[in-house]
Amino acid sequence: MAVNVHFTGQTTENLSRIELLAWVNRTLLAEFKKVEELCTGAAYCQLMDILFPGCLQLKRVKFCTNVEHDFLNNLRMFQNALVHLKVSKAVPIERLAKGRFQDNFEFLQWFKKFFDANYDGKEYDPKGARNNAPMGYGTPSTLRPSQRMNTVPSAGATTGPAGPRPLKRAGDTNGSTPRLHLMDKVEAAAEGDGSDGELRAGRGEKQLDRISSLSEQIDDLVIKIQGVEMSREYYYNKLVLIENFINEQPEETHDALCEKVKEIMYAAE
Fold first, then answer.
1. What residue spans define the domains of the chain?
2. From CA 57, how far away is CA 197, in angstroms rounded?
3. Does domain 17-147 have CATH number 3.30.420.360?
4. Which residues neighbour 237 within 8 Å (Cβ) at sequence distance 6 or greater?
5. Predicted TM-score (pTM) of this structure
6. CA distance 34 to 21
7. E strands within 113-219?
8. What gap in Å lies between CA 46 and CA 94, rounded to an integer?
9. CB neighbour list of residue 40: distance below 8 Å, 6 or more residues apart
10. For residue range 210-244, what is the model confidence (pLDDT) as tens digits?
11. Pick from 213, 146, 206: which is nearest to 176 by CA?
């Protein structure tokens, strides 16, 4: 039976997203670039296979996929394994599958603690166990989600009057709508025949490349902002704890160190 762990998100030993992602890639010999890519559920399935061999059918796991339906199937397999092992943690399947950073980051924090509490140190060949299937978001022939608007027709892509339309990535919000509208205009501008049509098509491709590059930069900046905000909250909470501790001490016990700490904390500059 598995060892249950409880996670509040307030402990000091929590790892950063970079450390957690490095741990996943190192353990599974994978190539995840972002925490959001764990929304596929494949990593959790194989990590469970390390902890409890045979707790799920690894051959049924979709290791390379960009289809939300596969994400849900993988995550349900993972959830069923936890239920079978009588683990009390509820898996937020729908939220994880949407690929949002915060949901996937918080769940990964819990799973790392669960893994550490249950791992017995046995050797494991992650690549051999998954038949050398690449581990990451999407298949080897597809780009990352932020680059997908510049892909060629593929299985699951829809086709419109102006040709193939890009796949909408899991986790997109209404904020991505202007990008898609802009792409429609670019595709329309690329239509035509003869040399004029070829010229417009060339310009359209350049604009699509530019849009794809800017989209990737936006994704990276969003992650950096989230990291900064989490760090800010972390250190702010630490300062509040220090302040409360000092203020709770009787006045007669205050020494020069406490007074200096308060002076620094309350300084205007």
1. 17-147, 203-266
2. 52
3. no
4. 10
5. 0.53
6. 7
7. 159-160, 163-164
8. 20
9. 62, 63, 65, 70, 71, 74, 137
10. 887 887 788 778 767 867 877 777 777 778 888 78
11. 146
